[in-house]
Write a structure and sequence with these properties.
The structure is a single chain. α1 links the parallel β1 and β2. The strands form two sheets. A six-stranded parallel β-sheet has the order 1-2-3-4-5-6, with helices on one face. The chain has a two-stranded parallel ribbon with strand order 7-8. It is built from nine helices and eight strands. By secondary structure, it is of the alpha/beta class. The longest helix has 18 residues. The structure holds ligand YH5.
């Protein structure tokens, strides 16, 4: 899954892809590099990022979704807002990537009625305050049980389990130790029986392990974390650097005898 940020304040792209045309160009490149899914988002979830109006978010992402879906790409829409999700599905998106884990009943109804696929991600707190003082007694167990319960709720409301991927939400209301506990115990999430998505690309935990390096210098750590995730059962890797990740996966798969 290749990341397309359609945000002027995007931490990594530095606003380079703010314009929808540039985001579409970026998306086409990620497809050529081997992405199977393009994750399009128009709101920064960084702590302290300014909230955007839903109408502004839609203006940013909908033309990008329409153009990329129109070229046959499988597009996921990264948004917390039902109005943006509905517009994106109309424009051809097929996956709802809601970082609030389909917390909103309205969001679950939209997924059920549209027949879209959904990613359920775990987050403690809200983007604005989630990193202030994350606390768990047993991070791995609590995140696992929360995801299992949320999948069960969705199923009870008529969303087929086959349409759901789960995601422990690395960096979303988690300290370094919490993130590491989730990565170390990643295999446990496979018990839930849904495809596992992992988003580690260029995240802060890499800096916390490596002397505070800025996001542009986190590719090696991102590749290591992505390969670790793949060995532990993650089927979908959400990444900025598609070509590099595809190369790393190809070599690892060939060496380990795993089918490509
Ligand atoms: C995710 O894990 N993450 S947006 C801060 C960084 C680097 C990267 C400071 N949306 C996920 O990518 N959706 C985001 O360095 C996501 N899973 C799913 N499903 C945050 C992000 C990032 C934040």
């Amino acid at each position: 899954m290749g990341i397309i940020n359609v945000t002027p304040d995007s931490f990594h792209d530095g606003g380079l892809y703010a314009l929808p045309e540039m985001a579409v160009t970026q998306g086409r490149r990620l497809l050529e590099e081997g992405a199977d899914i393009l994750d399009v988002g128009g709101e920064s979830t960084r702590p302290g990022a300014a909230p955007v109006l839903e109408s502004v978010e839609s203006e940013r992402v909908i033309p990008v979704v329409r153009a990329l879906a129109g070229r046959g790409a499988v597009v996921s829409i990264d948004s917390r807002h039902p109005s943006v999700i509905v517009a994106a599905l109309k424009a051809g998106a097929r996956i709802v990537n809601d970082i609030t884990g389909l917390n909103d009943r309205e969001m679950r109804r939209i997924v059920r009625e549209s027949g879209a696929y959904a990613v359920i991600m775990h987050m403690q707190g809200e983007p604005g305050d989630m990193q202030d003082a994350p606390h768990y007694d047993d991070c791995l167990g609590e995140v696992h049980d929360w995801l299992a319960a949320r999948v069960a709720l969705c199923e009870a409301e008529g969303i087929a389990r086959e349409r759901i991927a789960i995601d422990p939400g690395i960096g979303f209301g988690k300290s370094l130790d919490h993130n590491l506990a989730l990565l170390k115990g990643l295999r446990k999430f496979c018990e839930i029986g849904c495809p596992l998505l992992l988003g580690v690309s260029r995240k802060s935990f890499i800096a916390h392990l490596c002397g505070g390096i800025p996001s542009q210098e986190r590719l090696p750590g991102s590749l290591a974390a992505a390969l670790w995730g793949a060995t532990q059962g993650a089927q979908i890797l959400r990444v900025h650097d598609v070509a590099e990740t595809a190369q790393a996966l190809r070599v690892w798969q060939a060496a380990s005898g795993m089918a490509p």
